[in-house]
Design a protein that fits this description.
There is one protein chain. This protein is an alpha+beta fold. Among the domains are: 94 residues, Efflux pump adaptor protein, beta barrel domain (Elongation Factor Tu (Ef-tu), domain 3, Beta Barrel), CATH 2.40.30; 89 residues. Strands 1, 2, 4, 7, 9, 10, 11, 12 and 13 form a 9-stranded antiparallel β-sheet that branches. It has a 4-stranded antiparallel β-sheet with strand order 6-5-3-8.
């Protein structure tokens, strides 16, 4: 009798445990479903950068903004750097002096050329000789007509007059050569001061005072033009076909909330064989230096709205069979 009571109690306990397990499983399943639904809702509510800008704008490949021009300012002259007139980060104008090389030897050569140019003794002598020979010939010609001078004497006077004229011409040509030499040395002296070819910013100094500039490494300073900036994108041919030179576009920088305006500068006529993309360059005005060179940016291309005609064409062109995978 006691065994029967014990078995009955055990069966009741098992039944209670089974009911509790079933109830717990039922409660856990809705909770899991609720959590999954909440995660899906949260992911669905998160907006992509394209949705945050406009539903009619599609994001394409990223690029990095670069200086519009990067100039490695160099010199063809040899010498030692005597003075560096700028520092890294300085803004420079066109023609502003950047670096001065030693110029003592060139200045000495310029003084010599200046002295040679001022020396006109040879020209003065030649002109006096020409004047004398011309007067002598003028006296002999009437005497020869009257028979008081020999013909050979007259010919000799003419030859002397021509030689004197040639000496004057030689002296004049010598002075012209000296003038050209003087101008050449002046240019060499000016080139000892290296100037900026563009308006921009000094990004790097390659030489310090006292260093020697050799022909194998003539670069002195790097100057970059930051207004405007330039971004090069690699687009698909279908996207590039929507663009043309001069077309205004918008570029979104990673460090800015609002996109900036740009302009298409180049749509490459060649599709790169390896990547199957078209190179597109965008010029971005940057007069206020709001955009930084090297910052990541994205080109915002307006999407063409689908018309009923284009949709009909797409359905007509779509194959009836499924593509082979």
């Amino acid at each position: 009798m006691l065994a029967r009571v014990t078995i009955a109690r055990c069966c009741s306990l098992l039944a209670v445990i089974t009911v509790c397990a079933v109830l717990f499983a039922g409660d856990a399943k809705p909770a899991g479903e609720s959590k999954t639904a909440s995660s899906a809702k949260s992911f669905g509510d998160s907006k992509t950068p394209a949705d945050s800008k406009s539903s009619s704008v599609s994001l394409d490949h990223e690029a990095f903004a670069e200086p519009y021009r990067t100039i490695q300012v160099a010199t063809t002259d040899l010498g030692i750097v005597r003075e560096v007139l700028v520092r890294e980060g300085d803004s420079v104008e066109v023609g502003q002096p950047l670096v001065k090389l030693d110029d003592e030897l060139v200045k000495a050569s310029l003084e010599i050329a200046k002295q040679n140019l001022a020396s006109r003794g040879a020209l003065t002598t030649a002109e006096a000789e020409l004047k004398l020979q011309t007067a002598r010939l003028a006296k002999l010609e009437p005497l020869a007509r009257d028979g008081f001078a020999r013909s050979d004497e007259l010919e000799r006077a003419r030859s002397d007059q021509e030689v004197a004229a040639a000496r004057v011409l030689t002296a004049q040509e010598t002075l012209q050569v000296r003038q050209r030499e003087f101008d050449k040395i002046q240019i060499e002296l000016q080139r000892r001061t290296v100037k900026s070819p563009i308006q921009g910013v000094v990004s790097k100094l390659h030489r310090e005072v006292g260093e020697f500039v050799a022909p194998t490494d003539p670069v002195l300073i790097t100057v970059v033009q930051l207004d405007p900036l330039l971004a090069t994108f690699s687009l698909k041919p279908a996207q590039a076909s929507q663009l043309s030179v001069g077309l205004p576009v918008q570029v979104q920088f990673a460090s800015r909330e609002q996109p900036v305006k740009g302009e298409i500068e180049l749509v490459s006529p060649v599709t790169e064989a390896r990547s199957g993309t078209v190179r597109v360059k965008v010029r971005i005005p940057n007069s206020q230096r709001d955009c930084r060179s090297g910052d990541r940016c994205v080109l915002l291309i307006p999407s063409r709205p689908e018309t009923p005609q284009s949709a009909s064409n797409d359905r007509t062109k779509s194959p009836a069979t499924k593509p082979i995978r």
